[in-house]
From TrEMBL:
Stretches assigned to the Pyridoxamine kinase/Phosphomethylpyrimidine kinase domain: 17-253
Pathway the protein takes part in: Cofactor biosynthesis; thiamine diphosphate biosynthesis
Enzyme Commission number(s) of this protein: 2.7.1.49
GO cellular component: cytosol
Pfam family, one: Phos_pyr_kin
GO molecular function terms noted in the UniProt entry: hydroxymethylpyrimidine kinase activity; phosphomethylpyrimidine kinase activity
Name listed for the protein in its UniProt record: hydroxymethylpyrimidine kinase
Organism, scientific name: Pseudomonas mangrovi
Length: 265
């Protein structure tokens, strides 16, 4: 009989990226690298490549609920990671799913734009996430452009966005890298008023799926029981290494290398 201990299960609610750079494939690879078992629940289908997204379709809520309920009934979910939702109705669907997982940490990556800039939902999706999902998330992980959308501050700094968003959040990680600074600044704002800054060297080029990689890794660390500040540091360090080792399989952005080349032997 197989006596290997079970890996922590992370329920991933996100969209499918056919290029394999972002979305559920990014979640699965990042979680495998953390020693977790990913349970991917598809919320949306997209038409995209490493350059940009051209179209998307949000799945029917009954299909998403059925997927999630099948996982929850069978597997011991230790954390939940949110990615692309695409509609206000899907925000409400996630709320219903989370009612069955009241003590499970939720990592909310508010995916509102593709790496190439294309929209992955109307602005009202961002507002619904802010009002409905951020309050129940253990941590939200927007990049600065997404934080500006959520905070309704088109030119706001990370600190200004955090001041506007913290009343909705338990904890907030705003990632940098969208300016021209040599050092990337990632800022973790805690509900108790404290703040932790993490810096890393900017790498050249653009990357497809870096936000998915970070949020999934963070969910995996929380699923292992790691404390939030330590889990954020671990996730940021791992994500930076995947970008350092990234490859360019297509005509657009680099894709993070989340698994070692010899992963499959």
């Amino acid at each position: 009989m197989n006596s290997h201990p079970s890996r922590p299960v992370v329920l991933c609610l996100s969209g499918h990226d056919p290029s394999g750079g972002a979305g559920l494939q990014a979640d699965i690879e990042a979680l495998l690298a953390q020693g977790c078992h990913a349970a991917p629940t598809v919320t949306a289908l997209t038409v995209q490549d490493t350059v940009n997204v051209s179209d998307f379709r949000v799945l029917d809520r009954d299909w998403v609920l059925a997927q999630a309920r099948a996982v929850i009934a069978d597997l011991p979910v230790a954390a939940v990671k949110l990615g692309m939702l695409g509609s206000v109705e899907m925000v409400e669907t996630v709320l219903e799913i989370m009612q069955a997982l009241p003590d499970v940490p939720l990592v909310c990556d508010p995916v509102l734009r593709a790496g190439g800039g294309g929209a992955l939902g109307k602005d009202d999706v961002g507002y619904a996430m802010r009002e409905r999902l951020l309050p129940i998330a253990a941590v939200a992980t927007p990049n600065l452009p997404e934080a500006r959308i959520l905070a309704e501050l088109p030119e706001g700094s990370a600190d200004q966005c955090a001041e506007k968003l913290l009343p909705f959040c338990q904890n907030l990680l705003i990632t940098g890298g969208h300016g021209d600074e040599e050092q990337i600044h990632n800022r973790l704002y805690l509900r108790d008023g404290s703040r932790h800054d993490f810096t890393c060297v900017r790498l050249p080029g653009g990357y497809h799926g870096s936000g998915c990689t970070l949020a999934s890794t963070l969910a995996g660390r929380l699923a292992h029981g790691e404390g939030l500040v330590s889990a954020v540091r671990t996730a940021l360090d791992y994500t930076w290494r995947t970008l350092r080792d990234a490859e360019a399989p297509g005509r657009g952005q680099f894709v993070p290398r989340r698994l070692p080349l010899d992963f499959c032997g």
